[in-house]
Design goal:
With 363 residues, this protein is of the alpha/beta class. The protein has 18 helices and 12 strands. It folds into 2 domains: 189 residues, Rossmann fold, CATH 3.40.50.720; 166 residues, N-(1-d-carboxylethyl)-l-norvaline Dehydrogenase, domain 2, CATH 1.10.1040.10. The chain starts with a strand and ends with a helix.
Length: 363
């Protein structure tokens, strides 16, 4: 019998995951809380999937905005929505989750699994579930129409973790038929601090913000927007991220190393490896500064990375600077609104206590 998989979110990543799993024989239930995102797929009777030079139509077993119907009997629940919606999704799922289900946030950004589990518990859910998070989305992809998606590249290796960390093998066993690329991280600390999106998104948007606001033609986000100077600043933020990981006993790949592992690109510098990555070639910059590259990756990526750093005595001046500039430009207090230690239930814990909590789920 094929595995029943609920996919929550019908955006770029969710549509890609639903189509890809369905193409491999999975019994997919595609769900979105906003019915308008499903209308095109419902009308066409499926999803047109363009992947690896081939185009085919795949049909999910169910396309619905009914969360309970999507989750009922599903062994695997793939949440593929922006990080700032994870709490909302957790609240919507809390009453329908079942014992033995595995929830995977694709990706979790930073501490997403912890936030999701704490939210469903606060809603009264006591089911025996595992909440897992990937370090990044496994695809480079875009929806090309209401019922079509193009997967430009599939990463060769992506880290995944679970909360608590000692249940990761259960997650890998369920995912293996669809995604052998997933490799286990030590704990959610590992995937959280390996949040490459927080390195590749806010800084280039800030440094190209005038271009985004004034150039209606747009530009290639990676190939045109990340110049040698922009890449140099990204590397400084990245060094701080790696230092935070080291303070928690987590050895992280640098962004430069991650590109080779994920895409098998080449080059001596971060800039060269981005330019030599064909999967990035067709990805355009956001049309507005009100994009998830900022509204998701600052409060749910940079803020918790810096906060974890400060808790461990690691200075993060460049990350702090990007957060401060983002707060000023967007008129928001991302440090208060985002995944702070307080909001994650980690305030007052020592570094060693934080490490133990992520590993065992016990404070």
């Amino acid at each position: 019998m094929s595995t029943a998989v609920a996919v929550i979110g019908a955006g770029n990543g969710g549509t890609a995951i639903a189509a890809h799993i369905a193409s491999q024989g999975g019994q997919v239930r595609l769900c979105d809380l906003f019915p308008e995102f499903l209308e095109g797929i419902q009308k066409s009777g499926g999803i047109e999937l363009n992947c690896e030079g081939m185009t085919r139509k795949v049909t999910p077993a169910l396309v619905t905005s009914d969360v309970k119907a999507a989750l009922s009997g599903a062994k695997l629940v793939m949440v593929v929505t922006p990080a700032f919606t994870h709490k909302m999704i957790a609240k919507a799922c809390a009453d329908s989750l079942e014992d033995g289900q595995i929830v995977v946030l694709n990706p979790g950004r930073t501490a997403g699994a912890l936030e999701f589990l704490e939210t469903v518990r606060a809603c009264g859910c006591k089911k025996d579930i595992i909440v897992s998070e990937t370090q990044t989305l496994i695809y480079s992809c875009r929806k090309t129409g209401p019922a079509s998606v193009h997967i430009y590249g599939v990463k060769t290796s992506v880290d995944i973790s679970s909360f608590p960390g000692n249940r990761i093998q259960e997650v890998l066993d369920v995912l293996a038929p669809f995604y052998p690329q997933f490799t286990p991280a030590q704990s959610v600390l590992g995937t959280s601090l390996a949040n490459i999106g927080s390195m590749f998104h806010p800084t280039p948007v800030l440094l190209n913000i005038g271009r985004i606001e004034n150039d209606p033609r747009g530009y290639r986000y990676y190939w045109d927007g990340i110049t040698p100077s922009v890449a140099g600043l990204i590397e400084q933020l990245d060094a701080e991220r790696v230092a935070v990981g080291r303070a928690y006993g987590v050895e992280l790949l640098s962004a430069k190393e991650w590109l080779v592992r994920s895409y098998d690109t080449h080059g001596d510098t971060l800039y060269e490896r981005i330019q030599n990555n064909d999967a990035y070639g067709d990805i355009m910059a956001p049309k507005t500064i009100q994009a998830r590259y900022m509204t998701e990756d600052v409060p749910n990526g940079l803020v918790p990375i810096a906060a974890l750093g400060h808790a461990a005595g690691v200075e993060t001046p460049n990350i702090d600077a990007v957060i401060t500039l983002a707060c000023s430009i967007y008129g928001k207090d991302f440090r208060t609104e985002g995944r702070s230690l307080k909001n994650l239930g980690l305030e007052g814990l020592s570094r060693d206590e934080i490490i133990e909590y992520f590993k065992t789920g016990v404070k």
